[in-house]
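Figure 3 (text version): structure tokens given as input.
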């Protein structure tokens, strides 16, 4: 494989990640990785991994070079997938790693029967670092030594990408996970914090590398130094007076809007509280007035009934006298 055949970027779509996690969950065996086939397309120097399916795989824990991959199952599955979408080709294979194993080069040679340039993607189903994407892509290139020619994996940049329809599906799946009570502002702040943490982590990595090179622990790599220099040259100069003034004005304007919004929100809350208290007071007064009216109606009725009872008693006494 020549240098021009190596893809510059590998884009992993959400369906592949969901399929790999589902495959690993269904196996439910500790200390065991799962293997599957990647489907997709290649346009120029970019590889899009659009779909995948699981393949039965076994390996010996004691001897890593003893393994079994059911390629007959793979051929049957690919023939069925081809009937559904003929544009998706076999572009590689995936493993849940989480690291490269000794038998991966041999497995890669088996996949080379179906595609000349297989992409090996390690999908971490249990990532420990939330700041890193759970995928690592590799391509096997020939390494010619004095005695023999063998293939070694070369890292290829990878990223998570999605089409518009896939974004809608992912949003639908995350509805039950995402807290709807959290405001959009909180989401933006969390994203900014995560981005700053990721930037700090990468700056620490560069600082560690430069320190080891300065101490003589690592050899000097001019290409890496050139890339670091380009990164620092692209960083904006924040010490310019005009820029500092503009940032202060922008920050003060934003803080003023937030302050006024907080005041308006507090005033509206107090206004609603006062209206609620007035409404409750009016309801209590109306209830007391209705109770008083009911009591006033009951008193005349009681006096009339007492008069009737008195007349009845007088008639009864007069009738008893007449009988005597």
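Below: residues designed for each position.
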């Amino acid at each position: 494989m020549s240098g021009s055949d190596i893809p510059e970027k590998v884009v992993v779509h959400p369906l592949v990640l969901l399929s790999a996690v589902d495959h690993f969950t269904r196996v439910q065996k500790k200390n065991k990785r799962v293997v599957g086939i990647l489907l997709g397309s290649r346009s120029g120097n970019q590889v899009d991994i659009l779909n995948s399916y699981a393949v039965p795989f076994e390996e010996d824990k004691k001897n890593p070079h003893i393994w079994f991959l059911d390629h007959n199952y793979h051929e049957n599955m690919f023939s069925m997938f081809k009937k559904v979408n003929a544009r998706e080709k076999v572009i590689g294979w995936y493993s849940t790693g989480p690291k490269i194993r000794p038998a991966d080069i041999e497995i890669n040679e088996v996949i080379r029967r179906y595609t000349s340039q297989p992409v090996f993607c390690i999908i971490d189903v249990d990532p420990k670092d939330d700041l890193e994407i759970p995928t690592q892509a590799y391509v096997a290139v020939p390494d010619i030594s004095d005695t023999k020619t063998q293939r070694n994996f070369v890292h290829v940049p990878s990223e998570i990408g999605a089409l518009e329809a896939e974004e809608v599906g992912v949003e639908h799946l995350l509805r039950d996970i995402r807290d709807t009570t959290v405001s959009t502002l909180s989401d933006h702040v969390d994203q900014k914090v995560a981005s700053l943490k990721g930037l700090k982590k990468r700056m620490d990595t560069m600082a560690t590398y430069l320190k080891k090179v300065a101490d003589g622990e690592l050899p000097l790599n001019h290409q890496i130094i050139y890339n670091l220099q380009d990164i620092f040259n692209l960083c904006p100069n924040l010490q310019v007076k005009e820029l500092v003034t503009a940032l202060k004005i922008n920050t003060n304007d934003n803080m003023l809007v937030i302050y006024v919004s907080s005041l308006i929100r507090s005033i509206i809350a107090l206004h609603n509280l006062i209206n609620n208290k007035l409404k409750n007071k009016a309801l209590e007064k109306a209830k007391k007035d209705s109770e008083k009216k009911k009591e006033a109606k009951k008193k005349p009725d009681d006096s009339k009934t007492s008069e009737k009872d008195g007349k009845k008693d007088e008639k009864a006494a007069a009738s008893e006298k007449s009988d005597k």
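The beta strands are 9-12, 35-43, 46-55, 57-59, 67-69, 89-95, 119-123, 135-144, 149-156, 158-160.
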